[in-house]
Specification:
Blueprint: H1 18-32, H2 38-49, E1 57-58, H3 62-72, H4 79-92, E2 95-98, E3 111-114, H5 123-126, E4 153-155, E5 160-162, H6 179-185, H7 192-205, H8 214-233, H9 241-264
Antiparallel strand pairs: 1-3, 2-3, 4-5
Helix pairs in contact: 2-3, 2-4, 6-8, 7-8, 7-9, 8-9
Length: about 260
């Protein structure tokens, strides 16, 4: 691959825009942050900043990135630390690295391309979920909105069939999910997976908001879920409740951020 201006590598970006890139990085960090040392995290965060012009793509030289950590991060890193971080990031699937060459054929700086956070192969994300008709949203009539079909689950390793287990209700929800949120959601989706995935969205979106208390998270979750149900009751077509819920939460946090900026200004 020939080296050149970063703009020529736009086609390699996997993200719609910088916000989409940042959202994916937040999800990656929840899983991987503990895998990197403090110095490696500095290297990674600096690489992320260098990947802003074309969302998720960077062709800066190692020396340039390392130098920036000394000048701007207050704690510089070594070239070997940067390379160690890259090796880990590649192994975890966070990064794809391409070698580039100059016009004369000599090796040039590498091209770093961040990958999207993988969608889990789970019923909650791998399938398109249709919301029921409006009248079925009345509590407590709906206790099984995400019924699965009667097909057998196939073990791909040995092609043996096993009967599908019955759906587990809200009482099986992890104790990491606040009881108040669980009890609200179960009136409409009495399925522990749905409840846990909705709460996971709150966890991801507020992970870096250090000023957010557990009560703040709970208030955000309840308010966002009520808005989701309210919009559905008004006739809004929602094909995937998780993507829709994510959008509601993101909009509320954006509005909160703008409000804080206005107060400071």
């Amino acid at each position: 691959m020939k080296n050149g201006n970063i703009e020529q590598f736009k086609h390699l970006s996997q993200f719609r825009d910088i916000r989409d890139f940042n959202n994916n990085i937040e999800q990656w960090m929840i899983d991987l942050k503990q895998k990197f040392t403090k110095s490696e995290l500095i290297a990674l965060k600096r690489l992320i900043r260098f990947s802003a012009k074309v969302a998720g793509v960077c062709n800066a030289k190692i020396a340039t990135i390392v130098s920036a950590t000394h000048e701007k991060d207050g704690m510089g890193i070594s070239r070997s630390t940067f390379k160690r971080m890259i090796a880990k990031a590649k192994a975890f699937g966070l990064l794809t690295v391409y070698e580039t060459e100059r016009k004369n054929g000599s090796q040039s700086s590498n091209l770093y391309v961040f990958n999207r956070y993988p969608v889990k192969e789970d019923v909650s994300f791998s399938q398109t979920i249709e919301l029921p008709k409006e009248e079925k949203l009345d509590c407590p009539k709906t206790s099984n909105l995400l019924e699965t079909n009667n097909q057998d689950v196939i073990d791909k390793r040995n092609d043996k069939k096993y009967p599908q287990y019955p759906q587990l209700d809200a009482s099986f929800t992890s104790n990491r999910v606040p009881v108040e949120f669980r009890d609200l959601v179960k009136c409409f989706y009495d399925d522990y997976k749905v409840i846990e995935e909705l709460w996971k969205i709150i966890y991801i979106k507020t992970y870096y908001l250090s000023y957010y208390t557990q009560q703040n998270k709970l208030d955000l979750a309840i308010d966002s879920f009520k808005q989701l149900i309210r919009n559905v009751k008004r006739g809004r077509k929602v094909r995937n409740i998780f993507g829709y819920f994510w959008g509601i939460v993101e909009k509320k946090l954006d509005d909160e951020y703008k409000s804080i900026i206005c107060e400071v200004a």
